[in-house]
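Please go through the sequence line and token line underneath and see whether the fold suits the sequence. See right below:
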Amino acid sequence: MTLHLGKVRPLAPALVTSLVLSLVLALAALVSPSGTAPARAATPLTVSQAIGQQNGSSQTVRGYVVGQPTATSTVVRSGFPNDYALAIADSASQTSTSSMLYVQIPSAFRSQWGLRSNPSLMGKQIDVTGALSAYFSHPGMTSTSAFALAGGGTPTDPPPTGGTSPWDSTYYAPAVGKTGSALRTSLHDIIDNNTKLSYDAVWTALKDTDQDPNNTNNVIELYTGRSIPKSSNGGNAGQWNREHVFAQSRGGFTTSAGPGTDLHHLRAEDVTVNGTRGNKDFDNGGTAVSGCTDCWTDSDSFEPRDSVKGDVARMLFYMAIRYEGDDAFANLELSNVSGSAVPRIGDLDILLAWNSADPVDSFEMRRNDRIHSQWQGNRNPFIDHPEWAAAIWN
């Protein structure tokens, strides 16, 4: 078979010129002047990459806020003196200054991004754009031109205040939509009517609330993460006992029914590690704790493993809201000042950062459900709504 295409007519010169011009413009849209494909938005550098690239180039770096640099080898994590600088790192728990990038904060950004004004930034992941050059004679970023939370937004955006928990339309209905002192008061009124256990009953309750999901004969210790037989409870080395996350001596309470027996801050823990923690504040840093991987301590603070830092924070948030001094128990508070003041414990800035960095997991949620349904009849609202901590204490 012969295919007849017919006569092909030549194109008019003006039409040829028009087609060529269109083709050139189309290619120009796909090719940069250097002859390469147009650049896509660059992936932010890691902090370690930025530390190794101190050449003055303008870059965007992503990292976790870990404190405020005040000298070449000094980064403070609480009691921030001003809003002039941030230290960021690739890990929210980083304590080595050699692994941090020091970020200068120009005056236009200080009210939203300075730690004195926004201490809850601690532990949050942010993107920062500026020149990679030394600050405080340390790898850093200067001439900073942009800041953003890694997920978008700014730290001074109003925090969400409800609508995502299955308890919102019932248990939390009076609190949903509130913020600040109004939210605090509403939550206290919701959770302060609870069944109070004896200290002996706490042994039995913890065997339920802290049960190992992979071995129903065991409990999981809070700080060590060790799975240990429920029957190995007591006061001897190698056993587990009842850890008060809000230390008794710091709250001014005993083990009579009340805050000293409140399951929302009592956890199973190794006897020896419990003794090491003692009544110390919670903070980052120190020396390694024997028998507790990724735990650290110094003379006045204790740092648990990363995967339970949020758990610790949310337990303390609960205690500060549940016990307001109106039911014969002390008014428990959270503090930014280390020390042995009663009835308070800290460090609040660190706890807010831990709450953001370590999300609620299934173990924590199950524990909240069991305490509510089987033991005390009340819930920890900061497990159901972690964002309420910032809405109250930011």
User: Anything to note?
Assistant: Confidence is low (pLDDT under 50) at residues 1-22, 24-41.
